[in-house]
Amino acid sequence: MKAAQSFLALASREGIRACFANPGTSEMHLVAALDSAPAIRPVLCLFEGVATGAADGYGRMAQAPALTLLHLGPGLSNGLANLHNAYRAKTPIVSLVGEHATYHRANNPPLSSDIASIARPVSSWLKTVEVPNQLLDLALEAIQAARKTGPAALILPADVAWSDEELTPPTPRERREEPFDATHLEEAARLLGPRTLLLLGGRFLSAVACSAAQRIGAKTGALVLIETFPARVRREGPAAALRRLPYLSEMAASALANIDTIVLAGAAYPVAFFALPGRPTKLAPEHARVLDLAAPGSTIEGALNTLASVLQAPETEPSIVDRPARPENGGAIDPASLAQSIAATMPENAIVCDESNTAGLFCYDAAAAAPPHDWLTLTGGAIGQGLPLATGAAVACPDRRVLALEADGSALYTIQALWTQAREGLNVTNVILNNGAYAILRLEMMRAGVNELSEAANALFDLKRPAIDFCAIARGFGVPAERVETPTKLVAALERSYAASGPALIEVMIR
Amino acid sequence: MKAAQSFLALASREGIRACFANPGTSEMHLVAALDSAPAIRPVLCLFEGVATGAADGYGRMAQAPALTLLHLGPGLSNGLANLHNAYRAKTPIVSLVGEHATYHRANNPPLSSDIASIARPVSSWLKTVEVPNQLLDLALEAIQAARKTGPAALILPADVAWSDEELTPPTPRERREEPFDATHLEEAARLLGPRTLLLLGGRFLSAVACSAAQRIGAKTGALVLIETFPARVRREGPAAALRRLPYLSEMAASALANIDTIVLAGAAYPVAFFALPGRPTKLAPEHARVLDLAAPGSTIEGALNTLASVLQAPETEPSIVDRPARPENGGAIDPASLAQSIAATMPENAIVCDESNTAGLFCYDAAAAAPPHDWLTLTGGAIGQGLPLATGAAVACPDRRVLALEADGSALYTIQALWTQAREGLNVTNVILNNGAYAILRLEMMRAGVNELSEAANALFDLKRPAIDFCAIARGFGVPAERVETPTKLVAALERSYAASGPALIEVMIR
Question: Where is the Thiamine pyrophosphate enzyme N-terminal TPP-binding domain (chains A, B) (predicted)?
Fold first, then answer.
């Protein structure tokens, strides 16, 4: 198993510090070799969807790849939905997918499948190691690809991993940030004006990038928006107030109705999440001119900063926005009082993992006045991301509080993440928004033109028969939990969780 | 949405009676249309892996396809591991995968991915409907393919589903069983002898098929074995004692050491589950001649019956095997007393869904003396199958008791299945074998030649830190639960669950 050890030594050298694993027999030698790479923290997950979602949360916060250890085609399959989200976020991840020994593949044993076919749609880079002496070169390629373009998948047959061949690690290559392409800067500077949309996106919208964009907007009158589902936004100072393009295409189209120019800064051209009968799927007017300031997913800090300088956009005055007061009432919790409770109590430097869907709709805007924090969203729309994402973010940033805002239906996809949080003592406050329904689907059905819910639809969107007791489930996984039904109690529960160390779950009964 | 309604009308006509669903926006019109097809029972699952596993259990028992409703690439991905198991079992399933409207795909919205690439490795049939007037022809093709060869995937863009075009259903085609290929019968009859292995497999080993095979063995002296992980075996009468090829390749190779001829009846050539350093992956001697009596996965009742007649194999005398007595002791539960407890109490006509891995190793042989029953196993090795499989089997056979024998680690993959059992009032006894570990991996590591578990390995195979409380989790999902630590209490709990209706969970603490 020298090959497995050499692989992990190289991964350590290249800055990999965490391995989210749900290993199986085909990955035994990698597991055995982990002791030889003490810089890499092994984190056990009860389901591969937790491992890949955690690697996504880790990668977004650390801006460096974690490893995942997945067991052949089925293990990869279980982790695929969260790799889809990571692929959309361009998060650096190296997925190590164990495969049967090269000579065993032709036997077609029960666990065989076409791993590459499954991995390709969510991989920015994908290769299979066929012989041991390819291993380290391909591993380095995978790590570099992950850093540059997002999830990379390295398929590793068992006989390569257990080989005792001596392997020589490739020379370290210098890492350098690709300079941004300044070709369009002058043109962008000319085009920006009151009927221009400056749309921000990409891997990480830093405080510097957000501030530059806000200043550009203030100077030129351009509408500055963040894409609907950004991978990560650092929110501090006046730029924390930047808004996101609305999810509902009707609202988005109305916000963009007067736009004649779109400058894309790391974001893709704005399109509807879903097509609806008779409605447009492109959200800006058809005639609008489009200019790419940076490729989708790129880091855009440099480009925006330069653009702000070219435009001589002045520093923004620190605005004085009052942080919302703690709500003090004993009534039911609704989306507005939820948002207020979150914003009023959020600790300094929190990391919010937002999969709150309908119930959490107002939280983002409300939190603009909270202390500086990072906000991570559901980039690919594949639900079941939130709790794993929070788990990985907490591994990356042990000194910060992670707040998972989680819809009930989505939480149930990957609820096993709670166990890893308990096991690793992670500082995650899991807020489960229990409205007893796939509320988003009721909404989507209306939008799709079906105005009266059929009996079947009502049944299929319902999560109340029987009611789910999230506190019991959390305790079963070793996470302390409490249920709250009023804003006052929610605030108290949030503050209790922030003051303690380790994970907690708060089940919020939403009206 | 006439198209969606026409599709469901055709599915009803073709004998589809259940739809395991976890729908999303792209499937709205199908959900809305379900009221127009009252013959199809919609069953809501909290995770797609539950939906596909349930469709597998349903299809194995009903021998007819269920529908699954999956939400684009990520929904399919979540259901993929259990579709892998179903693909290996050749279970009839029609997976309906919702896709973006045809004209929206090019926009590459966040939930887009290459659905076909993900589906292909687990589909016996796979097509995308591009225009409404293809829908019903392709739907009929999918249903027929599912009946014949296993999981079929029909990718259905939203604008096809919501179309109001009038569609004419294709004429029903006569269904007929393919006659078996008798070419090799005479040769098989000649070859069968004391050094022959008759290996049984396929979709369904009926009582008739098992009995014929047993008689052939008695007459010719051939070794008759069932493949290691059969899709479904009906066990009644003397043939219930037929054994399965051992999982451990060392044991299997030793059982087959003297074989010089292999007659395959619906089974594939026996190979190791995993390759191990320095060990053969083909389990029979290299020189052994191989004869295919039927293609892998075929129904082999006819072939075996005819073969038994050709050989003039007499009826087997009913053997008198005593059913094991209820264990009566207050000690700890080990695999032997577990097997005894199960065999001693199993009700008439039970359906056993066996994902018990290490702890349940002796249950199958012990249950040979239990009343007639069906036994379903982990055909594809993708764990997380058991609880969903039991859920679907119970939907197919509401008058029978389903017994899920479930390893702790595997149970945690798709634990959400419990909620569907509670919601639908399904008669499932979920026996969770809690040994606080991925015990199989400890074993596999030894077999892989790593004799001393590293610190990392010990940590990654451990499920005790923190201990998982399955009873709390079950109650959270609405299923009554109890924990037992002695055989006496296990027997009492089993009998209590068999006497009641609806689901129950028994957490068995295994030594």
Answer: 1-106
Q: What are the structure tokens assigned to A125, written together?
A: 């880079």
Distance (Å, whole) CA B43 – CA B20: 5
| Residue that the structure tokens 């009432």 belong to | A329
Average pLDDT in the B438-465 region?
Answer: 79
* A229, A275, A465 member nearest B158 (Cβ): A275
Segment A134-151 shows an average pLDDT of 97
* Bridge partners, B428 (sequence order): B402
B249 vs B272: CA distance, rounded Å: 5
- From B47, B74, B465, residue closest to A84, measured CB to CB: B74
**CA A265 vs CA A215, A224, A282, A311: distances in Å:** 14, 10, 18, 16
The sign one gets for the Cα dihedral A53, A55, A56, A61 is: positive
Angstrom distance (rounded) from CA B230 to CA B266: 10
ipTM of the complex as predicted: 0.97
- Helices and strands in chain B: count of H runs, count of E runs: 20, 18
Over the stretch B281-333, which tens digit does the pLDDT of each residue have? 999 999 999 999 987 666 789 999 999 999 999 988 777 678 889 998 778 99
> Which residue type does A114 have?
D
Residues of A in contact with B471 (CB under 8 A): 476
Can you tell me which residue has the tokens 């969770």?
Answer: B432
Report helix, strand or coil for A113. Answer: coil
Closest CA to A53 of A23, A80, A34, A71: A80
pLDDT, tens digit (0-9, with 9 covering 90-100), for B243-256:
999 999 889 999 99
CA distance A173 to A14: 10
pLDDT in tens, B188-210: 999 999 999 999 999 999 999 99
Query: Which of B5, B19, B46 is most worth mutating to test chain A (most A CB atoms within 10 A of its CB)?
Result: B46
Coil/strand/helix, residue B176:
coil
The answer to whether A69 touches A19, Cβ cutoff 8 Å, is: yes
Q: What is the DSSP letter of B218?
A: H
What pLDDT shows up at residue B298? Answer: 66
- φ/ψ (deg, to 5) at B213: -65, -40
pLDDT at residue A356 greater than cutoff 90: yes
SS (H, E, C) B355-390: ECCCCCCCHHHHHHHCCCEEEEECCCCCCCCHHHHH
B235-238: long-range pairs with CB below 8 Å, 24+: B235/B207, B235/B210, B235/B367, B235/B368, B235/B370, B235/B372, B235/B373, B235/B374, B235/B375, B236/B207, B236/B372, B236/B373, B237/B207, B237/B211, B237/B316, B237/B318, B237/B372, B238/B211, B238/B214, B238/B316, B238/B317, B238/B318, B238/B319
Inspect the interface and report whether the beta carbons of B77 and A84 lie closer than 8 Å: yes
DSSP A331: S
Q: Does A501 touch chain B (CB under 8 A)?
A: no
Q: Map out the domains of chain A with their CATH numbers.
A: 2-161 (3.40.50.970), 182-310 (3.40.50.1220), 335-509 (3.40.50.970)
- The contacts of residue A106 (CB under 8 Å, 6+ apart) are none
- Whether residue B404 contacts residue B353, with contact meaning beta carbons closer than 8 Å, is answered with yes
Asked whether the beta carbons of B117 and B230 are under 8 A apart, the reply is no
Interface test with A, best of B19, B78, B82, B96 (most A CBs within 10 A): B78
Q: How many CB atoms lie within 10 A of CB B314?
A: 10
Nearest CA-CA distance, residue A173 and chain B, Å? 30
- For position B85, what pLDDT does the model report? 98
Residue A111: is it exposed, middle or buried by C-beta count within 10 angstroms (0-12/13-18/19+)? buried
The 8-class DSSP code of residue A245 comes to: P
Best of A26, A68, A78 to disrupt the B interface (most B CBs within 10 Å) is: A78
What whole-number distance in Å separates Cα of residue A160 and Cα of residue B154?
37
Question: DSSP letters along A21-57, please?
Answer: E---GGGHHHHHHGGG-TTSEEEE-SSHHHHHHHHHH
